[in-house]
Amino acid sequence: MGVNLYSISFLISILMLVFLLVVGYKQNITFYMLVFIIITISNMGYYSISSATSIETAVLGNRLTYLGGVFIPLLMFLCFLKLCKLKIPKLLLSFLFIYAIVVLYYAFSIEHRTDYYRSIELISNNGMSFLVKEYGPMHKLHTWYLTISFCCSLGVIFYCFFKKNNISYKVTVSLLVAELGTIIIYYVNSTSLGNYELTAVAYIIDEVVILVLIRRINMYEISENIAQALDKHSTYGYLVFDNHMRYVGCNDMALTYIPEIAKQKVDEPLSEENTPFLYRHFSECMSDPKVMKEDCEHLIERDDLFLKCGIKNLSYGRKQKKIGFLIELVDDTQQQKYMKLLNNYNTDLLEEVRKKTARINQLQDKMVLGMADMIENRDSNTGGHIKRTSKVIRIFTEKLTKYNAEYHLTRDFLENVAKAAPMHDLGKIAVDDSILRKPGKFTPEEFEEMKKHSEKGAEIIGQLLEDVEDEEFVQIAKNVAYYHHEKWNGEGYPKHLAGENIPMEARIMALADVFDALVSKRCYKEKMDYERAFSIIEESSGSHFDPKLTEIFLQCRESLVEFYNSEEE
Q1: Span(s) in the chain for CATH 3.30.450.20
Q2: By C-alpha distance, which of 162, 148, 168 is closest to 84?
Q3: How many CB atoms lie within 10 A of CB 232?
């Protein structure tokens, strides 16, 4: 039974260590991991003693058990200091460490000394081995060491109880009780339980307690890491709350913005009596079901200070389980004052802003046309295609503005489509010259290579417009390049999209692109007359093109013919 007890304890301690590593692999769990490693080594020692067939093996196992008996109390004391955010005096740390080494020295020298164990004997009973020990005077060193370590931990708790609010007494007291239980079992075991060592079981209980508390402990690690990483940003304040709106902690800048946070106790919910400002602005927000699902932000005003407040969800573990809230406070006073000044500017200033904005747009348009010219200069087969399709898109989008309400096409959207049109074939810059400039039809292999220009175009546009603030325009430009060869019936390329799965801007571009190809001369064909071209467009409605858009495009016939005739003059 004993061998089974110690072997099971050893196996469980290994599993506990693995579980700790899995649960806290992204967190700062150094001290707890060391505790679990030493417990595993100690339980291996108990198992070695119980299965030993020689006194030498049993003594070696006994040495391993002392690794836990000596260093676990010291590591637990360091864990308390970390949880309570206290720094240990170097002199005290040195004393405890040297004391532990002295105890370990005597425990490791029992074969050569009689002052720690007067005698030690290996006996066997029902297939299980025991070490029968008669304690010497120096064995009291270990007893005193355990007592001193526990008193140090207890002293930390009492100090924080009277001096600090920013610790969790639930966590620290739970760990302290687990440590006390282990020490009591050790004392009782040494005096009244005979040969059975139940300290191995006590260690397993300690590990269970730590694993139960580890998620909560990691929450405090989260707040601490945030504070350390972001304290250098002098305008950012951070507060952390758990799912039940109980306060976890904050950084120094948050205390500067809202001094009353200092009155808020850790692990207690916001109180209207103690922290009215916090309660009024944050308690209601965090209890809102919408906030429980997604992040939000709003502006709060305190005296002459404007604070931009963002409430974000905190997640933990591989499954990203929601465990609390992070409140970010940013001093937005200067921005708000600037916005008020903007509201008072006269019409001359507004006109100047309008002119500068128009100038920036012109520069952007020139950049777009410049990139289009690069393609035209490389592609000897489609001369003028990009500029002509751009004009066709302008004519088409002007007609589409009359259908805004019916098709939900805003003026901004249509303007962005027109601005993006010159970039629809930008990917051809990545096509080899031997294919791009070939004076004739492509082979099937060459055509497959040419088809890659749509995907390449989207990638190039994404890189070129990376810093452009207008995200809608960037996305429209990428969609136009990527999907303008898709067909309504799903037989296009590169993604074989069908119907309304094709972005609207790409469906618009497809009509302009094909129409210009029909009525323009290419090295492999003559230009087609307008009557035949419009007939093909109409016949392709519902197969190649969006039927509704095709109907509107055909209404542009007069304007399109007029434009192409002017190009020939």
Answers
A1: 231-342
A2: 168
A3: 7
Q: Rounded to an integer, what distance in angstroms lies between the CA atom of residue 245 and that of residue 241?
A: 5
Closest CA to 424 of 536, 507, 362, 530: 507
Q: Which residues of 388-426 are buried (b: 16+ CB within 10 A; e: fewer)?
A: bbbbbbbbbbeebeeeeeeeebeeebbbbbbbbbbbbbb
Residue that the structure tokens 């010259």 belong to: 433
Report the DSSP beta bridge partners of residue 330. Answer: 236, 308
pLDDT tens digits for range 349-408: 667 766 766 666 666 666 666 666 666 655 554 457 888 888 899 999 998 988 877 778
Do residues 468 and 419 make contact, with C-beta atoms less than 8 angstroms apart?
Answer: no
Instruction: Give CA–CA dist 194/154, Å, rounded.
Output: 30
Task: Name the CATH superfamily housing domain 373-568.
Answer: Hypothetical protein af1432 (1.10.3210.10)
- Sign, Cα dihedral of 505, 506, 509, 511: negative
Pairing of strands 321-331, 247-250: unpaired
Query: What are the distances in angstroms from CA 330 to CA 258, 280, 339, 350?
Result: 12, 18, 16, 29
- Considering the segment(s) 2-222 as one domain, its CATH architecture is Up-down Bundle (1.20)
Give Cα 110 distance to the centre of its chain. 53
- What is the third-level CATH fold of 231-342? Beta-Lactamase (3.30.450)
| pTM, to two decimals | 0.41
CATH code 1.10.3210.10 region(s) in the chain: 373-568
Which tokens sit at 462? 């994404």
Cis previous bond, 494, omega within 30: yes
